[in-house]
TrEMBL record, chains A, B:
Transmembrane segments: none annotated. It holds the Pfam family FUR. The lineage of its organism: Bacteria, Pseudomonadati, Thermodesulfobacteriota, Desulfovibrionia, Desulfovibrionales. Its cofactor is Zn(2+). This is Transcriptional repressor. Binds 1 zinc ion per subunit.
Length: 139, 139
DNA sequence: GTAGATGCAAATTGTTTGCAAGAGA
DNA sequence: TCTCTTGCAAACAATTTGCATCTAC
């Protein structure tokens, strides 16, 4: 993603363009493994060794509040984040903590039963599958 | 549920029948609000004032390991539990933390795409909807 | 009698916050 | 300049663990 486009994106969201924010967001968009805050921190530190873990937490929280990043549900106590804003579903391995994406037609926002609309305002909907992945099964 | 049936259920799961375990499980089966460990504790203490919070945590963990109780994903850091073992889906209010059930035909285990079976062993699948409930919206 | 369960207290872990200094718009 | 960010350290909150005692089986 172009730097200029990012500056615009941040500005639209009311966020200043800082190097730390830039690096965290870039790491999130590039990540395929739904990293934890600490994992993001480890990665970002390679480009900015002085960045603190709290900044990563704060940055992820503000990106989440703007919908630029999502918190993946269903894992352990440790929060995991997703930089892919497009709607998709998740497979969570209860053993190794690995998280993978999958797609499933017929399980989007439009397919929810009407009672859901009556419940309130929906922010996102996803199918969450929990189990044990192939590798942890020893296959 | 009959005490004898419960004793049998616990025995089948390799769990001793203790008063604490009995009360925690009963509280879970009766609860409609997907309580947190601390909420369960508060309720159970009315019948057993001496029960400790760690026992509630340990009991919920062992019930979960046997599939008698589920951890509801998607809320805050605080774990919420579900004593309803039948498959169903969840609506999570990000504001008040309230959790409600809903049903959705076409979103059961049998409806998952084949790639999910290739991923590993599935323990459970559910649709998770996050948003803000009617009451928190002020309606 | 023995393995598993409980209570207590202390420890752990992930995450948040107050504050002063620093940097973007 | 003025507000938003950051780093540091301390605070927090939920959950787990070690250990000695107790209890179901």
């Amino acid at each position: 993603m172009q730097i200029d486009a990012l500056k615009k994106l941040f500005a639209q969201s009311g966020l200043k363009f800082t190097n730390q924010r830039y690096l965290v967001y870039k790491a999130m968009v590039e990540a395929r493994d739904h990293p934890s805050a600490e994992t993001v921190w480890r990665r970002v530190r390679e480009s900015a060794p002085a960045i603190s873990l709290d900044t990563v937490y704060r940055t992820l929280a503000s990106l989440e509040a703007r919908g630029l990043v999502t918190r993946v549900p269903g894992g352990s106590e440790e929060s995991r984040f997703d930089g892919d804003a497009s709607p998709h579903h998740h497979l969570v391995c209860l053993q190794c903590g690995g998280i993978e994406d999958f797609v499933m037609p017929g399980a989007g926002l439009a397919d929810l039963p009407p009672e859901v609309a009556a419940w309130g305002r929906v922010r996102d909907a996803q199918v969450l599958v929990r189990g044990v992945c192939r590798r942890c099964l020893g296959l």
